Input
Amino acid sequence: MTAPEMTVSDDYTGDLSETSGAQRRTAPTATITKLSVGPMDNNAYVVTCRETGDRLLIDAANDPDRILALLETLPGTLTAILTTHQHFDHWQGLAQVRESTGAPTLAGRIDAPEIPVDTDRPVDDGDVIEVGKLRLTAVHLVGHTPGSIALALDAGDRTHLFTGDSLFPGGVGKTWQEGDFEILLGQVTTKLFDRYDDETSVYPGHGLDTTLGAERPHLGEWRERGW
Output
């Protein structure tokens, strides 16, 4: 089967609703390439070290043929695949991408047993994932799932946060059990908003990007509405 053609635009907006291609943002030490996959508009991200070309794939969520086409289009070597959390829509393409690339898999230690692809490296809060010369810090966030992992990258211009389904434009991720919303909002507040500044870019598991500065004024209303 011929791999689908993949285009990569360097005009980065974070809005992929009008394109089947990917968008790439260039920072001093890294590039961040975003691709929307599957019927739930999942975001797959490729973080590349500009110095070494080493790459991390975040969420092989769906459409593995398109993810592999993107990896073939971008320069560099895939060194790891991280799954942000256990929900099925975030690992539909994982087995095929892992088989095709041989890259080791990473996931939060608590969620890893629920992902039907072996996790080569379980990740805990505060762990550092090295991608070439880049260092991404794991942030364990409870609430959307028990073991969701966000990643924080200082790319020389600002912090870049990959939040999975724990933080979106307009609110935190969906919760199901009583008390989980309060736990998630509390952890997002203390581990993300209290730790990183307003310029911090947020790359969620679905849809558009945002910044902590755009969302910070609304924390109180999120708490009041209860979702």
